[in-house]
Backbone:
């Protein structure tokens, strides 16, 4: 067992049930087809901290940024698109902290 604090114990009291929809695009018969996959897990979603927003490109600082913490790896990768509470986001960062029993994702409001 790691000597680092085990985040899973803190998560136990913070976690809530979260449902995201992962949007996947593929070309079928020369047409762009979107498929949606429901991802359900326990975790924490909260806005990015002001200090983290300061290092984002200037034009993106006003967009809605969220961070997702979970003790289970979910099927998301950088550049994937998701829907959360009927709003579309793009995955901008994925960090694997499995040695400390958690995973971190950073998503930004998607603009067409």
Residues:
């Amino acid at each position: 067992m790691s000597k680092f604090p085990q985040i899973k114990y803190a998560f136990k009291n913070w976690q809530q049930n979260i449902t995201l929809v992962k949007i996947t695009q593929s070309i079928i018969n020369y047409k762009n087809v979107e498929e949606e996959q429901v991802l359900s897990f326990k975790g924490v979603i909260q806005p990015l901290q002001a200090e983290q927003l300061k290092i984002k490109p200037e034009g993106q600082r006003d967009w809605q940024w969220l961070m997702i913490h979970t003790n289970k790896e979910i099927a998301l990768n950088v550049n994937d698109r998701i829907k959360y509470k009927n709003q579309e986001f793009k995955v901008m960062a994925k960090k694997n902290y499995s040695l400390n029993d958690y995973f971190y994702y950073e998503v930004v409001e998607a603009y067409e």
Remarks:
- The chain is about 10% helix and 55% strand.
